[in-house]
Amino acid sequence: MEEQTVEALIENFAEALTEIVGAAPHILREPEGARGSYRPDFVMEMSRDGEPYRLIVEAKLSLFPRDAREAIWQLRNHLAHHDVGADPAVPVLIAETISPGARQLLRKERIGYFDSSGSLFIAARGLYLRVDKPASRKQSRSLNNLFTGRRAQVLHAVWVAKSDWFGVHELAERAGVSPATASETLIAVERREWVEVRGAGPSKERRLINPRALLDAWSTYQGSVKPKAVRYYYVRSTTPPDLQRRLDHACQGEGIPYELTGISAGQIHAPYLSNASQVSCRIPAGRAMHAVLDAIEARPVRDGWNLGVHELKSDDELPFRQRIDDLWVADPLQTYLDLLQAGGRAKELAQHLRAEKLKA
């Protein structure tokens, strides 16, 4: 980590402790160890209600579950083999960003933590401190960059692979991204412990082992961001099934890909609602899209719509669509994610779809 970042974390951590315990902690720098040996970054001496504590602190840029496990082992190994004084020794990890999964792990292992949002946890004999604060914008970007753009396509491909082993190049081809983007994303997925790994180098493979955690994290992200814009249209004198068929025929005529999504796709994958009067689709923006809308005589409206269009930047954003009953349909995962951001009874259908098709 950059020295400036570490200094800022130390200062903020000391200020947070001062505010809680009413007295400033004393910061001690750890001497350099022998080459190759581990030393924590610094030690803090503090007291609470007359009881002294010695905080053994390691600073990181960010912490996800895998990083936290490695750091816990280092700290505990250090405490087991070094004399840290008579006062109770409390291992603590501080970082700019600590993921929810890492926080949960650290609390379970009774390892203290502090991050740049001001969230804090310290547990020892006669001492229990916990402060939970929402993530900052910078932290949110670090935690959620998996769920946007090309990285989201890689994550989607990981999901589609289910429990099968896959290599970087295979996954990159499946997701329609570069091997570099796939590799970068998979490293981040490993840190979250959603996949397991075998082999090394070019033969390294991974497979999904924690689909529930992946889906929970993605669901939380979907619920925290503003839904993407949808353009609404009215197509005269047509039922939803007829409108879907007309849309498919027009797209084939223009040579443009599309996929039904939202309630339209949810009802195809896992019927739940007794009535669905509107059709939603995802389609690349451009001349061909407008030609399709003209072909089905779709008129832009604000209210009373029966066709909702999610415009995509390019046609390579549809790598996972499925052909069902002569229609192109978003796969269950994409359908679920879109339903989470739709209105009405869409969220009910989303939970039904998750239970029936995603099973996580």
Explain this structure to me?
It comes from Mesorhizobium helmanticense. This is HTH marR-type domain-containing protein. With 360 residues, the protein is an alpha+beta fold. It has 3 domains: 3-135, Trna Endonuclease, Chain: A, domain 1; 139-224, Winged helix-like DNA-binding domain superfamily/Winged helix DNA-binding domain (Arc Repressor Mutant, subunit A), CATH 1.10.10.10; 231-358, 2-Layer Sandwich (Beta Polymerase, domain 2), CATH 3.30.460.40. It contains 13 helices and 16 strands. It has helices spanning 3-21, 65-81, 100-108, 137-144, 149-160, 168-175, 179-191, 211-224, 240-254, 262-269, 287-295, 332-339, 346-358; strands spanning 26-29, 42-48, 51-63, 89-98, 112-115, 120-124, 127-131, 195-198, 205-208, 231-235, 259-261, 279-284, 298-300, 307-312, 322-324, 327-329. Strand 2 and strand 3 form a beta hairpin. Helix 5 crosses helix 6 (168-175), helix 9 crosses helix 11 (287-295) and helix 10 (262-269) packs across helix 12 (332-339). The chain starts with a helix and ends with a helix.
Distance linking N and C termini: 36 Å
The total of helices stands at: 13
Structural class: alpha+beta
How many individual β-strands?
16
Mean pLDDT: 91
CATH-defined fold name of the largest domain: Trna Endonuclease, Chain: A, domain 1
Catalogue the unreliable spans.
none
Trace the largest sheet across and list its strands: 1-2-3-4-5-6-7
> Class of the largest domain in CATH?
Alpha Beta
- For the record, the CATH architecture of the largest domain stands as 3-Layer(aba) Sandwich
Query: Which term fits the overall shape?
Result: elongated
Largest sheet: 7 strands, mixed
How many structural units, i.e. domains?
3
Strand content: 15-25%
The ordered string of helix (H) and strand (E) elements is HEEEHEHEEEHHHHEEHEHEHEHEEEEHH
Q: Bin the helical content.
A: 40-55%
Could you tell me the radius of gyration in angstroms?
26 Å
